[in-house]
Amino acid sequence: xxxxxxxxxxxxxxxxxxxxxxxxxxxxxxxxxxxxxxxxxxxxxxxxxxxxxxxxxxxxxxxxxxxxxxxxxxxxxxxxxxxxxxxxxxxxxxxxxx
Length: 98
Hints:
Radius of gyration: 15 Å
Order of helices and strands: EHHEEE
Protein name: Halobacterial output domain-containing protein
Domain Halobacterial output: 7-81
Largest sheet: 4 strands, antiparallel
Low-confidence stretches: 93-98
Strand order of the largest sheet: 1-4-3-2
Organism: Halobacterium hubeiense
């Protein structure tokens, strides 16, 4: 799933929203993001510099709630389940006969 982070949305909140959309779980039933990454540090990593200029570039990937989450430039998220319904890795095609 591709997710565009809104201008007024924190990166940490966008991660939770995108992962709950992919997994179909409610935000209250997903693990706390803080168990994987510090939400304040995540937001600070992609926030504007001290002088207000936007940070450019930057790429971070981590695993949260059985999903691979990739953040690009603090503007876009990609969320991919680690496992498919076939039991294999999400990025691999299922084995024939499964």
